[in-house]
Each structure stands twice: as structure tokens, then as C-alpha cells.
Design brief:
Family: Belongs to the RNase HII family. Eukaryotic subfamily.
CATH architecture of the domain at 11-240: 2-Layer Sandwich
GO molecular function: metal ion binding; RNA binding; RNA-DNA hybrid ribonuclease activity
Shape: globular
Largest sheet: 6 strands, mixed
Cofactor: Mg(2+); Mn(2+)
CATH superfamily of the domain at 11-240: Ribonuclease H-like superfamily/Ribonuclease H
Structural class: alpha/beta
Radius of gyration: 25 Å
Strand content: 5-15%
Catalytic activity: Endonucleolytic cleavage to 5'-phosphomonoester
CATH class of the domain at 11-240: Alpha Beta
Strand order of the largest sheet: 1-4-3-2-5-6
Distance between the termini: 60 Å
Keywords: Endonuclease, Hydrolase, Metal-binding, Nuclease
CATH topology of the domain at 11-240: Nucleotidyltransferase, domain 5
Number of helices: 13
Length: about 350
Amino acid sequence: MTEEDSQQLQEEISDTEIEAAKEAAKVLPSIDSAKILRGETYTYHSPIPKAIQEDPTGEVILGVDEAGRGPVLGPMVYAVAYCLKSDNPMLREHKFDGLPFLLPPLTTKLTHAFRTHLLQTLTTPSTTLHNNLGWSTISLSPRDISSGMLRSSTSSTYNLNAQAFDATTSLITAVLASGVNVKEIYVDTVGTASTYQTRLQKLFPSANVTVCKKADSIYPIVSAASVCAKVTRDAAIGVLVPEGKEIGSGYPGDDKTKGWLKRDMDLVFGWEVSMARFSWATARDMFEGGGKNGSAKGAGVEVVWPEEGEGAGQTLTGLWGAAAGGKGPAGWYGRSVHREF
């Protein structure tokens, strides 16, 4: 496991925090429990903050970050946060400066609690954050992530990078369409920053776009987006995890997560599409077999699909009557069937 994977594991919700996430899911506006359980992708937009409404020509900064890109379980959530550029000091006052996310592993629980506290403050009317900071999220379901990545034609495969890019642009476009005067955009990325930045700059020429790794620890507005994404994903996991179940961090390298996948796997259908990403190698190899050496056998049963045209023209009575060569049930019981249905 790489150092980056270890850091991601530390940032993921732990089993002891699931109950808190379940409670948060009941009040967070970015949580739609029904859609999460159905495996649907959905978007949430907060109202335009009062400060921006009162100063519609004021320059606005916007940050983008995600949560749940790597896990085999649960949704991937992208979020944007935005405020007047003059309110940037306000973000630092509320500790949106990356520091809470760089604490040692032993304080992970406090970090999760701190994030939740910040988002709850943001969603509470009359607070400074509520009046000055706007935010949006898009929760990409495991079903939709996997269906895009597992398209039969290689040329039409909708890979994770493309899905992430589209999620980012759709959120930014929606904020701009609402009349917000966005002049600076800051994006956290795990890919090649320069390429990503060039593409976004072409799409949003009216704003100055900055893309870099670890942007949430550099730009407070990205840190704010990170909080919105992470707390929303944690709460979504709280919705998905049954009482008393332990799923671990959700990352493929986590033994608890792999244990849950093995225990909860249906031998024909795999897992709930709202929970597991079938396109991840961990899930695919466990179900279908394969692995690095290609020799491991999966636990799932093999399903054989008829080739196109196979059985064409066959009638229902052909399976039951004389056309079945005397092998159908009509040859065992009663008279042969001659009428076609």
C-alpha cells in the first residue's frame, strides 16, 4: 500500500463513526436517502448566499474537490464551494485552511467530527458561513460509475477520469448559470494538473483557473469544498451500511472491506448496485476470477448468455410438444400440443 493510500485510509470514515454519519444523514440537505439506496446519481445545490445576492457584481472564488474516488464501496462525491473573494479571510477564521486534515492518524476521529461540525454550521440559517458560503455536490453512485466503466465497447468506455471531469464541469456550469460572478476557480486533482487546467480554462474563459495537487491544504475555498464532499460521502455511507455491519474504510486494500465483500456477495448478482463498484478489480476478481496471474477462480456462478440469433423462431409450444422431439413435458403428460401460442 502506498503512502497516499495510507493517507486516504486515515481520512475515510471508520466503523466507530458510522453511527454519527447516520445521524448526519438525517439532516444534511445534500443527502437523498431514497436515491442513494436506489443507486441513483443526484445533485444538490444550496441557495445563493445572502452576501452574494446583495453584491451580485462582486468577484467570487470557487473551489472544487472530491471524496471517495478510490474506494470500492459507496459513491464518489464531487463538491464546489464559493464565496466573495473578499470573504476569503472568513474561511481561514473557520479553519478552512487545510490544517484540520493534516493531523496525525490518532486524531482522525476529531477530524471527522470537525468536518461534520463545519458543514452543520454551514447549513444552519443565520450563521456567518450560511450567509456567505454557497456549495453544491454531485453524488456519483457505484452503479453509474461501474456501468460507465464496463461498457462493452472500448471506444465508448466512460472511465473514471472522464466521469470526474464531467462532474466538475457540471457543478461549475450550474453555479455560473445561476448568475454568480465567478472569477477564480481552484481545483484539487489527482491527475496531470497542467492538462486538466488547460481543459477547464477553455471551458470557463471568464475565470482564472488554477489546478494543483493538495489544493485543499493550500486554498481555503478548496478546503471548504473538501468538507462538503467528505461529509456528504460519509453520511451516504451511513445510509448504506446496515445496522451492526462493519465494512472498513471502503478501500480495496482494507481487510475489513474485503471481508465484507466476501460475506455479502450474492453468487449470481454480486452486490447491491447502490453499495459496490463492480468495475473495481477487487470486486471483479472476487466475483468473476482472474487476478494478477489470471488463474484465480471467482466465487460467483457462471452465467451463459445465448449468442445473438440462437433459438430464433422457437415457439413456446416447441419446448413442450412434438417439436421438442418427444422430450418435452407434453410427451410425458396428456396429449401432444399442436396449437401454437
